[in-house]
Amino acid sequence: MKKRLLCIMMVILLLMPTFSYGADLHKDTRAVLLGEFESGEILYEYSIDTQIEVASMTKIMTYLVAMDQVSTGKASLDDVITISQKAAKTPGSSFKLEEGEKLSLKVLLESIMIVSANDSCVAIAEHISGSEEEFVKLMNRKAKELGLEKTKYFNSSGYPLKNDVENMMSTRDLFKLTRYVIEKYPQVLEITKMNKIFIDSRDYSGENTNPLLNLIRDVDGFKTGFTDKAGRCLITTIQVKESERNKKPFRLIGIVMGTKSDEDRKNISKELIEYGLENYYYRQILDTDVAKQSINIVNAKKSNIKVFPKDDLYMLVKKGERIQQNIIIDENIVAPVKAGTVIGKVIVSNTKGQEHTIDLIVRENIQKKNILDMLFDLITNLF
Asked: What pTM did the predictor assign?
């Protein structure tokens, strides 16, 4: 009886539909994207080309434009900025700035990335360009330069204008922008991983708005956003360390747009990052110290010559993904051959159709047969 019951249970399990982890990561959102920082490969996507309100995600561009001014010497992080009346009265999330107060550009930039301070955005814009309107022109110019085709800025903070107009981007554009900023100014991660910002002289303490900072180890950014139209939004980035399974450190960027609650934003963002951590890792496909094949070369004194990849190859793969390798050897190669000579190639491809072509080389000098070698071969073949 027990055996029969066990068999029935096994049949039921086999007939049950397979659960695909990550299949519903976009439920109750406006858009979702999971991507790899270095390659730009998109690993999961939903509605990423729809132009939507981005709220305080705007501040990523504000940070970028300001840092570009610093990098070209037109501004300095040590610049002391006097807070204007307009900046001090900016509505929405704030750094609690007061008119006439003096703060450094460095501190103001930290405040927009940690506590999402709208008032600091206006103060930065006025310092860089004289007015927020002129600064926004720089933001839109930079967006065009980066090829952010569905991006349009109306202010420096993302707070809705009086006519309910808001800054607009696609989620794909947000991914491109985030990658660009982290690549060009990696020091931004030193800001976005801070749990709090303290200003003793102002008796100010503000907590980072990112709910995943202390929820998932190694999360070090990146930016939150919220308006009524945009919903709750979050860009998360995490450095994945080298391990027994993962042979190369890499960075994941997860974007969740338009959830209805803070709890949904936190939970869906957490699921998205965990999906990436569970399913994606770097494999070493080719190793310059591991021979791919042994070949014979016409007129070579030596047989069974090992050929090696000229370069290492690491590929980001999904769990269970198959990698194919096609080795092509140049049949016209004749001894002598110098060490380092390319004698063929290996074409590596994955199930997504991505291909990498790596040259194959010999790592030793291959001598040509002399007359005695040829005579010895002749005699050997006769007997």
From this structure: 0.88
